[in-house]
Amino acid sequence: MHERIQRTIARLLFVFCCAVPTLFTCLCILVTWTPWYHQHALQNLEAEFSLATGLSIEIEDFEKTTPSGFCLLGVTIREPETTHEIARIRKIEHITEAGEVTILLQQPEIQAAELKGIWQLLHQRFLCRPDLTAIPIRASANDLTLHSRTGAVTLKDVDAWIVPHNNAVEATLACLPANSIYDTPINIMVRRDRSGQHPATRWSLDTRGTALPCSAIADFLPEMEKLGVNAEFAGTMTWQIEKKHWWIDLGGSRFTDVALDRIFERNSHRLSGTATFEFDRCRIDPHSKRSDISGSIVAKNGQMGRSLLLAANQNCGFEIRLQDRLIDQHGDIPFDLLGLGFNVNNAQINLTGTCRNEVGYEGFPANVALCLDGFPIVFSTPQTLNSLSVLNVVAPSYSVAVPMSDQTDWLMNVLIPPSRPMPTNEPRIRSANNWRGGPTISQPQ
Question: Mean pLDDT for the chain?
Fold first, then answer.
C-alpha cells in the first residue's frame, strides 16, 4: 500500500475514532451543564417518582453526587386529587451500594391529617409489591416533625428498615420523642405476610416505657381525639388486617391523663375527671366473635351525673350510699376517687370496685368503686353481668332495645338507631295561618 494512502487512512481513523468521539463527549458534557437539560432531567425525576408512589412529587433541585447516588433538594409531597400537602423534606440523599439502598432525610415535616396517604404509600406501593422490596432499604431522618391540629411533635434519631424475607417483607421504624427522658427508642413494625391463603398485614407498636401523645395522631385516628389533648399512650399494641377480617391486641398498654368529659361530651349522662386506663389483657376479634379484656380504670377529682349513678344501680346492681348532704343537693355528684376493675369474656363482664388498691385508701371495704371525702359512695356487685347491661348504663334514656343476633348483625350498619328523643306529647300548635295583622300570640278561645 502506498505511503500516501496509509497516511490518509491513519488521519481518517484519528478523526472518526478519536476526534469525533471526543468532540461528541465534550458536546454532551456541555449540554448537561445547560439549564434546559437540568430542568428537563428534574421534570423526568418528578414524573418518575410520582408514577412510582401515586402521589404528586415536587422537587426544587437535584444533584448527581456519585454514579450510584443523587441528592434531592426541597421535596414536597402532595395528595394528587386535593393537592393537600402531605410532607415537606429539606434534603434527601439516596445511595445504592452493595445491593442495599440507603436514604437520608434532612428535617422532614409530615402533616398528621394526611397520614392515611403515607400509610397507603407504604402499604400499597411497597409492602404489597415484592418487586419493589427485593433489596433491603434503610432510611434515617433528622428531627422528623409531625404537625397536627393540637400542635407539633418532634421525633429524633429516626431509623427505618425494609427487609425482604421469603413470602414476607418487614418494615421497622425506631424513633424517640425529642422531649423524652428515656434513651430507648420506640419500635414500630409492619409485616406483610404472603405465606397464608390470604395476605395479611400486622402492625406492632412497643413504646418501651416512653409515653406517646394521643393528640399527635388524632387527625389519623379520630377516636384518639375523644381522649383529650393531654392523653398519652404507653405499652404495646398489635393490630392485624386481613381481607374482611381484623383483630387488635392492647395487652400491657396504658392510657393516662384521659379526659372523661371528652368521652361523655355527646352522651346524655355526665362524667368528668382525669382517668388512667390499664389493660392487662385486651384481645378484640370481631370476626371470631371474641373479646378477652381485663383491666382497670382509675379517675380522680371529677363529677358524676345522678342519671349515670341511677343507671348503674338499675342495670348493674351497684349499691349507692349517698351522704345526706348530697341527697338534698341538686346537680352532679363530686368524687375524689373512681376505681373500677373490669373483666370481659365475650358476652359476660365482671365489674369490681378497686378504690382500696390506691395509696391512702387501703382501709376501705372491698368493692368500693366511688368515694368522696373519705367515705364510700358506690359499691360494686360480685355477680357476673351480660354485656348489654353495661351498654344500658351509658345508653341515653331515649335509647331503644335492638334485637341483636348473628342473623341481624349485618343490619346494624344499615338501620340507624335514633340519636335524640322523639316527642311523646301532642304539639300545642295545631295549625298555622298567614298573619294578617293583629296580635301574633293569643290565648285559645
Answer: 83
